[in-house]
Amino acid sequence: MSNVWKKKLLDIAQDAPETVILAEDEASLYLQATLRRVWAPCGRTPVVYASPCRKKTNFYGTLNLATGQVITTRSGEMNAEATAAHLRQVLEAVPDHPILLLWDRAPWHRGAAIRQLLAEHPRLELMRFPVAAPELNPQEQVWKATRQEVSHNHDQSKLDRLADSFEQHLKTTRFAWSLVDRYGFTDIRAMFT
Question: Is the pLDDT higher at 156 or at 115?
């Protein structure tokens, strides 16, 4: 993590310790299963459903770095309007505190809908990850863990059912800090917990 980031986070910890720090990202879920290693009885080859279509659903996910909980929104599209709708959900989930949202530089993180939302909610502050640095975003590890649990090697034939399971896992799992500590967020956790 760069010194600029650490200084910014230390300043927030000292000046506004009630600030809730969140990390946001998006992921697309396809019916096509992703394959991983799997145990199987000797002589029985595991069967994984292969969908011929490329239908997908998108998820916005925002990880609370203090609690490990995820705020998630399912969306047909990833654009500024869908992003603003997710940010409204984040603001509702954290109603009484300032928020520092860490996110990447995706094109749907810009636009009139985002500017308007930020003007209406000054307690929401954005901090962008460096260019081409997905390994810094703790939400990426949440996607990885959820895919491993839900969508790798699945045998689901309906995208809606797979998406329901994916969303349910996100909403009911507290993602352990071990997922994010190795990416330099240990110091952040110590400051805000």
Answer: 115
